Amino acid sequence: MPHASLADTQLDRLQEILARHDGLEGPLLPILHAIQTEFGYIPAACIPVIADHLNIGRAEVHGVVSFYHDFRDAPAGRHVVKICRAEACQAVGAKALAEIALAKLGLEWHGTTPNGAVTIKPVYCLGLCACGPAAMVDDKVVGRVDAAKLNRILTEAGA
User: Fold this and answer.
1) Which of 34, 76, 114, 125 would disulfide-bridge 119, Cβ 3.0–4.6 Å?
2) Same domain for 93 and 145?
3) Which residues are annotated as a binding site for [2Fe-2S] cluster?
4) Which residues bind [2Fe-2S] cluster per the record (predicted)?
């Protein structure tokens, strides 16, 4: 059945993903991960197709997408900046650092700057507890982040 808001090529790729997961026990999460890998996010137009294919409600699919913070319903920025929110980093200033970042970007958590350069996300432990506050820029972990280092990170990322 055609879906107006998905381009034919997107619908073809979605159908391929669904076919690859046929017969899998509990396929919803693997399907969602595969879609996000393919498209960079979970397009809203995919939700009814997934629901129909798995014979589950659209609300169930939407609930899973919205429950897990790593699933995105819109494309992420060119750079994803994650700030650790775990206790060890909080104890050395991560809360204030997060407030600075959100204020500088004019965003809430999971938001993306209007120019599409930066998406800001909270993360709960990057494994740099002794070097907090910690952040991750794309796939690079950065320790001992202070306001000046944060400003450099955001500026270099294009914010």
Assistant:
1) 76
2) yes
3) 84, 89, 125, 129
4) 84, 89, 125, 129
